[in-house]
Write a structure and sequence with these properties.
Blueprint: H1 5-17, H2 20-33, H3 35-45, E1 46-48, H4 63-67, H5 78-86, E2 89-94, E3 104-109, E4 117-119, E5 121-124, E6 130-132, E7 141-143, E8 148-150, E9 164-165, H6 167-172, E10 177-179, E11 194-196, E12 200-201, E13 211-212
Antiparallel strand pairs: 1-4, 2-3, 5-6, 5-12, 7-11, 8-10, 9-13
Helix pairs in contact: 2-3
Length: 219
């Protein structure tokens, strides 16, 4: 049964307000009861394993070039390309017809192997961001190897000694937080001092920063 326009609007709002875990539960249920929903989810969340790129991959930086590297049907070399794409060929020996030489050898392509699929989106261990595994490159990830520590006196003007490190303090005093890996501040270089490939890791839900720092101001 179709829902009304008003219900559809309210549903979208409910999705925005729902927790990540509840949205996942509903998506799993949809995939279980609806083949169409399962197909759409697979198209959005899965990708052919051959298109996945990771550290050490020597494929072209631009996957779009690799995807269009096959000759058009009917062009020279198209037949050979098709056989190679389908898989390796096997030779079979057939009995010759009357008046022809016996033992003729013909190449028969093996049936195509089933494609292997992998999740299209992963969580990066270094930058702590989601990324598309088909777009991973040697310069895709920028991150700081070590966390930042409070080092600026301005941080203590309106805060007591032993105050807790919080996202709010980092937003208000970015110039007072220095990264141990490079010596730059959160204000000067919030993105990162190292560049490389995204590295897959386990998803970590954002957590509130909760720690007490013991930096001693100069005054």
């Amino acid at each position: 049964m179709d829902i009304s326009e008003s219900q559809a609007t309210t549903l979208l709002k409910a999705i925005d307000l729902a927790t990540e875990e509840r949205v996942r539960d509903v998506l799993r249920l949809l995939c279980k009861v609806s083949p169409d929903a399962q197909r759409i989810a697979a198209e959005e969340l899965l990708v052919d394993a051959s298109k996945k790129r990771e550290a050490g991959d020597t494929n072209l930086e631009d996957n779009s070039e690799a995807e269009t590297d096959f000759p058009d049907s009917g062009s020279e070399g198209a037949e050979d390309s098709e056989v190679e794409y389908l898989g390796s060929t096997t030779t079979t020996q057939t009995e010759g017809a009357p008046g022809s030489s016996s033992g003729a050898v013909s190449a028969v392509p093996e049936p195509p192997r089933p494609k292997r699929f992998v999740p299209r989106y992963a969580f990066c261990e270094n930058c702590k961001e989601e990324f598309d595994v088909t777009e991973n490159r040697s310069d895709a990830c920028t991150y700081h190897r070590l966390d930042c520590e409070p080092t600026g006196d301005d941080l203590w003007v309106d805060n007591e000694f032993g105050a807790e490190d919080t996202p709010d303090l980092r937003r208000r005093y970015p110039h007072c937080y220095e990264f141990e890996c490079c010596g730059e501040t959160l204000e000067d270089n919030p993105e990162g001092c190292e560049t490389g490939w995204h590295e897959e890791g386990s998803y970590e839900p954002p957590m509130k920063i909760s720690r007490t720092f013991h930096y001693q101001p100069s005054f």
